[in-house]
Amino acid sequence: MKIISFTNQKGGVAKTTSAYNIAVLKAIAGKRVLMIDLDPQSSLTILCNFMPAKTEFSVCNLFDGKTDPIDCGYLVKTTGLENLYIVPSDIELAEVEQNITGRTAREKILKKVLKYFEEYFDYIFIDCPPQLGILTTNAIVVADKVITPAKVKYLSYRSIRSLKRTI
Ligand SMILES: Nc1ncnc2c1ncn2[C@@H]1O[C@H](COP(=O)(O)OP(=O)(O)OP(=O)(O)O)[C@@H](O)[C@H]1O
Ligand SMILES: [Mg+2]
């Protein structure tokens, strides 16, 4: 299983669009792909026709410290496209980020949980929020690769420099 995080703290640079489209292409090619929406804005969740406010379980549960990682398959939703799955997001993820700030090993929470998905998926794609906060740090720590979409603009280039330092 390969984990790829779509990251750039600059907003509106096509992180979500890239994650979704590449995930769809991989799924059509027969790979089993899990998308994780790690952005409280929930754009990827909405793209997959889920209403963020109405999802009973969401990516927040991966961070709550109560959910048993061995038994968290119920967080994975089908998308209607064969081989393509999603763990949807929720606006409450913004609160979750604040709550985990004081936890020890807070940057490794996803790494600990996602190893339990290893046998079920060929790829996990993580769509990050436009900040270099603890959620994005979790996505970087767990990733085999980071893809950073960017606009060909000076400010976008500057954001890549600080992202590289963070990585
Ligand atoms: N290749 C492209 N050409 C033109 N427009 C694009 C392209 N890719 C994405 N867009 C548009 O750019 C906008 C921002 O895309 P997207 O939501 O994927 O960015 P994002 O980096 O995920 O944003 P955010 O930081 O808010 O999460 C959307 O309106 C999208 O349709
Ligand atoms: Mg996005």
Description:
The chain is an alpha/beta fold. The protein has one domain: P-loop containing nucleotide triphosphate hydrolases (Rossmann fold, 3-Layer(aba) Sandwich). Helices cover about 35% and strands about 15% of the residues. The chain is built from 7 helices and 6 strands. The protein has helices spanning about 15-30, 45, 60-65, 95-100, 110-115, 135-140, 155-165, and strands at about 1-5, 35, 75-80, 85, 125, 145. Strands 3-4-2-5-1-6 form a 6-stranded mixed beta sheet, sandwiched between helices. β3 and β4 (about 85) form a beta hairpin. The radius of gyration is 15 Å and the shape is globular. Magnesium ion (MG) binds near residues 15, 16, 43 and 127.
Task: Offer a quick outline of the entry.
With 167 residues, this protein is of the alpha/beta class. Helix content is 35%, strand content 14%.
The ligands bound in this entry are: adenosine-5'-triphosphate, magnesium ion
- The total count of helices amounts to 7
Q: What is the element string, with H for helices and E for strands? A: EHEHHEEHHEHEH
The CATH superfamily label reads P-loop containing nucleotide triphosphate hydrolases
Q: What's the structural blueprint in terms of helices and strands?
A:
Elements: E1 2-6, H1 15-28, E2 33-37, H2 43-47, H3 60-63, E3 77-78, E4 84-87, H4 93-100, H5 109-114, E5 123-127, H6 134-142, E6 145-147, H7 154-166
